[in-house]
Amino acid sequence: MPKTRKQKAEIKSELADKFGKMKSVVFTSVSGFTMKDADALRAKGKAEGVDFLVTKKTILVRALEEKGITLSKDLVSGSLLTAISYTDEVAPAKIIADFSKGREGFKMVGGILEGSFVDSRAVIMLSTLPSKQELLAKLVGTLNAPVSGFVNTLAANVRGLVVTLNAIAEQKS
Fold this sequence. Notes:
Layout: H1 5-21, E1 24-30, H2 35-48, E2 50-54, H3 57-66, E3 79-85, H4 91-100, E4 106-113, E5 116-119, H5 120-127, H6 132-172
Antiparallel strand pairs: 1-3, 1-4, 2-3, 4-5
């Protein structure tokens, strides 16, 4: 059943609100997208704080224009899946890249990062970056390395003393 103008305006305003809160967006051309795929994708997205939606391209373009982002209406032919992240810039690209492996109907066509449109190559490169949690873990490891080395150096002196005392004790007994 076709949507009324009022319903379309409501959808556009909801989308504009989502685009106002976003960190990044990934657009994917999909064909052969089943409900089983949609449920699996939503489950992955929910864990990462990513919303997935399929809307008419004209409504999508108008919602983006309301936020000052221009997007071509003839971006792709067919259905367009939109992945929106509110917390992590890399999450939607990673989820789509992992999900599209082995599926011919999925093709990343672009995205929005820092308020401007980026092409599919940039989105693919973004999907190869480590996640925010991985980067934070690496930072903590790097900051902890000198302290760990210092502790090991101090422990080596004590270990050496213990080994020497044990050798003297064995020699006397």
